[in-house]
Amino acid sequence: KSSSRLFITMPDVYLILGGKTGWIGGKVIKLLEEQKKKFYVAESRTQNRESLIAEIDKINASDPENPITHVINAAGVTGRPNVDWCEDHKVETIRTNVIGCLNVADICEERKLHHLLYATGCIFEYDDKHVVGGIGFLEEDKPNFHGSFYSHTKALVEDLLSVYTTTCTLRVRMPISDDLSARNFVTKIVKYDKVVNIPNSMTVLTDLLPISLIMAERKLTGVYNFCNPGAISHNEVLDLYTKYVDPSYTYTNFSVEEQAKILKAGRSNNTLDHIKLCSALPDVTIPEIHASMEQVMIRMKANLEQEGIWPEKLPKRARLN
């Protein structure tokens, strides 16, 4: 007499935090829509624990056969127009970047929900062991950059998150998109009067956001350096921008010391090691940063042309004498 068992696989159901107004959150929502995944966009703020719990319970009660299985946290305070804002708004920065972040991780731990967090890799700076062109920082390395209050909060919370077993922390760096969004690293440096010229790890969102959803689906946990392999300098980025988008564009360099005189907070410069990320996803191709950046500029020009921005309405700044 034979018997058979019926195994039912529950579908993945996502709750997106920071998706209503967030830059990365909005892009994640678009990807989930394209992939026809079931998801909800949270109304609650991450720091409001009871409100967030009630919202999860309400969603689950509305469709008990398809409860939330994954939480994607794209909420975070980076400051407007940049991280200098955090120096004068420390309480607000803590509220979201520390209290809110830990709230979400803790709720997910209690309920055994997978928690994918878009965090930052701007918690390191080159040092005697990690020099430009040398080895990159590993996921196990302790943050050595606290030069901005933003980075300080992120470094503290990453350490605390390490005890949560359902959390996957993605160290995003200098995120880059195929447009001229104000949040795009390319847009920012194009508008600067002067730029430093230091190789850095960077995150091309077109490459890596789809990969983050694969990581959520596979329920990977722990910390990952979430960048394209390699490091690219500001000058190399701007040279590609000039080549493909705006041949009339020019730029001028200055030193880190000169830069520090015009900023309230320091800026992180580093290279993050990519071995753990690539090893965790052996069937996924992650393009090297120089090759990826070239494709970014090709797509950017096409997008800007379609939007009517290229060539007449490209961003300009006061030219230096």
Write structural notes for this entry.
The protein is an alpha/beta fold and 321 residues long. Helix content is 40%, strand content 9%. The protein has a six-stranded parallel β-sheet with strand order 2-1-3-4-5-6, sandwiched between helices. It starts with 12 loop residues before the first strand and ends in a 14-residue tail after the last helix.
Concise overview:
The chain is of the alpha/beta class. The chain is 40% helix and 9% strand. It contains 11 helices and 6 strands.
What is the number of helical segments per DSSP (H or I, 4+ residues)? 11
Q: State the helicity in percent bands.
A: 25-40%
What is the ordering of alpha helices and beta strands? EHEHEHHEHEHHEHHHH
Major sheet strand order: 2-1-3-4-5-6
- Sketch the major β-sheet: 6 strands, parallel
Intertermini distance: 90 Å
Oligomer: single chain
The whole-number mean of residue pLDDT values reads: 93
Low-confidence stretches: none
Annotation, overall tally of beta strands: 6
Q: Report the β-strand fraction as a percent range.
A: 5-15%
Structural class: alpha/beta
What characteristic shape results from the CA principal axes?
globular
List keywords for this structure.
single chain, alpha/beta, 321 residues
Question: How do the helices and strands line up, and which of them pair or pack?
Answer:
Elements: E1 13-17, H1 23-34, E2 38-41, H2 49-62, E3 70-73, H3 84-88, H4 90-111, E4 114-120, H5 149-161, E5 167-172, H6 185-191, H7 205-217, E6 222-225, H8 234-244, H9 256-260, H10 275-280, H11 289-307
Parallel strand pairs: 1-2, 1-3, 3-4, 4-5, 5-6
Helix pairs in contact: 1-7, 4-5, 8-11
